[in-house]
Amino acid sequence: MTPHHLHAVRTTWALHTALTRLGELAVLESRLRTDETLSAADGLRSPLYGQRHATGGHSDPVSATLTLHDATARVTRWADLSQRATDRLRWIADMIGATPAPDPWWRIHTRTPRLPAATAATITRHLADEDTWIRAAVRLAPAGQPLTGVPCPRCGVRQLQVHTDGPEASWTVTCTCICVGQGCACGMDGKVEGVQHIWPRHQVLGRIDA
Fold first, then answer.
1. H or E element: which one contains 203?
2. Same domain assignment for residues 18 and 109
3. So what's the pLDDT on residue 33?
4. DSSP track, 10-68
5. CA distances (Å), 125 to each of 12, 48, 82, 122, in order?
6. pTM over the 0.85 mark
7. 42 vs 164, which has greater pLDDT?
8. Does residue 93 sit in the same domain as residue 171?
C-alpha cells in the first residue's frame, strides 16, 4: 500500500471516530426532543386544560400549544450536522465510484485501497477537512497521540504521532517531516517525494524492538 493509501485509510478511520461521536450526540438530541414534546403534550392533557385566565399563564392552552411546537422544532443542531456530513460523504463516495450502499463512510472506506495513488491523496484532503470540522463541533481532540520514547526513523528529532483509530492492523505512525523520494532514508515503503512520512505501526515499533 502506498503512503498515499496509508494516509487515506488513516484519515478514514479517524473520521469514523468523529462520525460516531456526532451520531451519539444526534441520538441524545432526538431523545431530548421527544421527551420535551411528550412533556408539553402532557401539559395539554392536564386537568387545567381549557381554563383561561385574564392574564394567561401556564394554564393558558395557547401558551401550552406554543410550547409543544417549540419543543418539536428546537434542538436540532447535531441532527443537522450529521445530515450535512452524510450528504458530503455521499458526494465523495459517488465521485470515486464506490459501491452503492446506505453508509457513505463504508463506501469510501472499502473503495480507498483500490484507488489510484493520486486519487487517494485527494480523498485524504477531503476527509481530513470533514474530520476537522466535525471534531471542532463535537469538541473532540484531533486524531493521533504522541508516541513518546521513539525517534523518527527519518529525522530522529520531531515528535512522532501514533494513530490508533480503527482495527489494530490499520494503526500507523506519522512524522511531520517530508519524504524526499528514492534517496530518503525513511524506510517507508513506496517512497513518494513530498508526502508526509507514514509507516504501519508495527514497522516502527518492530524496528525499535529489534
1. helix 201-209
2. yes
3. 66
4. HHHHHHHHHHHHHHHHHHHHHHHHHHHHHHHHHHHTSTTTT---TT--TT-HHHHHHHH
5. 11, 59, 20, 5
6. no
7. 164
8. no
How do residues 104-154 score in pLDDT, each as one tens digit?
999 999 999 999 999 999 999 999 999 999 999 999 999 999 998 888 989
For residue 190, what are the domain limits? Answer: 146-209
State pLDDT tens for residues 65-80. Answer: 444 444 444 446 898 9
- Give the residue from 92, 114, 142 where a domain finishes: 142
| Average pLDDT rounded to a whole number, residues 30-43 | 60
User: Do 132 and 150 fall into the same domain?
Assistant: no
Give CA–CA dist 43/168, Å, rounded.
52
Quick one: how many helices (H) and strands (E) in the chain? 6, 4
The domain boundary, picked from 125, 142, 159, lies at: 142
Specify the number of domains making up the chain. Answer: 2
126 and 181 housed in the same domain: no
Q: Looking at the structure, tell me whether residues 196 and 95 fall in a common domain.
A: no
